[in-house]
Amino acid sequence: xxxxxxxxxxxxxxxxxxxxxxxCAAPAPEKPPPAAAAPPYRPVASIREVMNSVIDxxxxxxxxxxxxxxxxxGLTDRAPTADDDWAQVRRHALIVSEAANLLLMxxxxxxxxxxPSLAPGVELTPEExxxxxxxxxxxxxxxxxxxxxxLTPALAAIDAKNAQALFDAGEKIDETCENxxxxxxxxxxxxxxx
Amino acid sequence: MKKTTLVLFAAGVLCxxxxxxxxxxxxxxxxxxxxxxxxxxxxxxxxxxxxxWLYMDTKQPDGTVKHWTIETSGPNQMxxxxxxxxxxxxxxxxxxxxxxGIKDPALANGRTLVLxxxxxxxxxxxxxxxxxxxx
Lengths: 194, 135
Fold this sequence. Notes:
The complex is a heterodimer of chains A (194) and B (135). Chain A is mainly α.
């Protein structure tokens, strides 16, 4: 009986030892480093189309929400008044702010294939714009983020329902638009006007 | 009938504010070789970002009236130069110097505005020709 117990113990020790040896002798194969994964997003529109279809219409809503008109009726100020009005402007400000992220996707084409310059001789061709972006991607990101940051005061003004602050923020938004356009869209026109 | 009313209403709403313009270079929209001096009557002024707009009528040599639309710089820029929205009245006489539009001959980019009381303001936007109007 004692002999049988010894046999069992010896078998167990042998099994454990074999397992340890096997474990040391054949290490688990290392996982290959992950290949550069393709980004999960898929740009559909070009930069020009994002500007024309997403950013421009919404930033115009932000700009036009506050202002004044003088006509035969006199001076009329306009600004959002009801909560729904402010909510509507906020939606547009958010669209613009988030749409800036779309411009940071560097594989997004500048314009649809074969699209020409919108103002030949003044504004660059899509190929020339792409070349400028590729030569200066950090500059592109900087200007886009500057643009996105310019929406922060606008959103704060909207949340505070402060029409004058929203009006003032509108000027800053325009400045950041112009900074980027002058650098990447029509640098020659800017240089010749100086 | 309802459809027509809806379309007209929509058109009215769209016309209530200045139609949006894409952000283009000055030279893409205005001809720096076509300076204009317009003297006439202000009919409307929009004090709005990113650019203000003046609307004025001028009498043509043949007696007809031409309706001009004039782009200005941003309203806060004009404010910093001393021009206020309360300086404007419909029907007042104004003189605008600027540059004519390339595609639209009734469009101009304003550089200087002279009010009826003789005060003069620079109203030009970024990217215009270096003509000294801003000095």
